[in-house]
Design brief:
Order of helices and strands: EHEHEEHEEEHHHHHH
Radius of gyration: 22 Å
Number of strands: 7
Strand content: 5-15%
Number of helices: 9
Distance between the termini: 40 Å
Number of domains: 2
CATH topology of the largest domain: Rossmann fold
Strand order of the largest sheet: 3-2-1-4-5
Shape: elongated
CATH superfamily of the largest domain: NAD(P)-binding Rossmann-like Domain
CATH class of the largest domain: Alpha Beta
Helix content: 40-55%
Length: about 230
């Protein structure tokens, strides 16, 4: 299967998952991580999905699938153990030009969900075009080892620094060189070691002429801040 790689912006968009089992749960959690407003159609739910529904974090309809339920959805995912239901979900979505994914049935998909590695704003996606999901999972595990959890705060810090530098001197001819020096420095290693003083020192060496030490310290503190929840 030939595919065109794309990252969909679905934050605050309504997305439908048909099926409340283990596979449906994975689909829901991935959609929620992307900021989607998720509705689940199923007669039963996993404990995790039931908890999300009880807290109002997802919408749950305990009923059988009907074609009209796909109306207004940005994405539709079928994750039931009934091939006939999955095929109906796919047909209903495609008839309305809504992108649809059917778990383990690429012939009924208009998009494939790749194996993913997430580190904060960094997302690495691997697809074999449906040829070997097992290989995609193996490659994901290898990438998880190579791209450790430090990439989350590392990328967050790079984003904050870039925003402040551009606010100080947008379109300056040396900005690009500064950003490249940052990513080629030992900054990531210092973050992985949790060495904040070294992080500030490295930033000061590269950006001291643009951003003062108090500002750099503030940016580092924000990047190292524990996420809420």
């Amino acid at each position: 299967m030939k595919t065109y790689p794309i990252f969909a912006v679905i934050e605050d968009r309504h997305c439908l998952v048909v099926g409340g089992g283990a596979v449906g749960e994975r689909k829901v959690l991935d959609l929620m991580a992307a900021g989607a407003r998720v509705t689940v159609i199923s007669r039963t739910l996993t404990a995790t999905l039931a908890d999300l529904a009880s807290r109002g974090e997802i919408t749950f309809w305990s009923e059988d699938f009907s074609d009209a339920l796909v109306e207004g959805m940005a994405l539709v995912m079928a994750a039931t153990d009934d091939p006939e239901v999955n095929a109906r979900v796919s047909a209903a979505a495609q008839a309305r030009s809504i992108w649809v994914n059917v778990a383990d049935e690429p012939e009924h998909c208009t998009f494939i969900v790749p194996a993913q590695v997430r580190r904060g704003d960094l997302t690495l996606a691997i697809s074999t075009g449906g040829a070997s999901p097992a290989l995609a999972r193996q490659m994901r595990e290898e990438l998880q080892q190579h791209f450790g959890p430090e990439y989350g705060p590392y990328l967050d810090l790079l984003k904050r620094v870039r925003t402040r530098v551009l606010a100080e001197r947008r379109a300056h001819p040396e900005n690009s060189d500064l950003f490249h020096r940052l990513v080629n420095s030992p900054l990531r290693e210092a973050i992985a070691q949790g060495d904040r003083p070294r992080v500030v020192k490295l930033l000061h060496e590269i950006l001291g002429s643009v951003l003062g030490t108090p500002v750099l310290g503030e940016l580092v503190a924000e990047a190292f801040k524990e996420p809420e929840g």
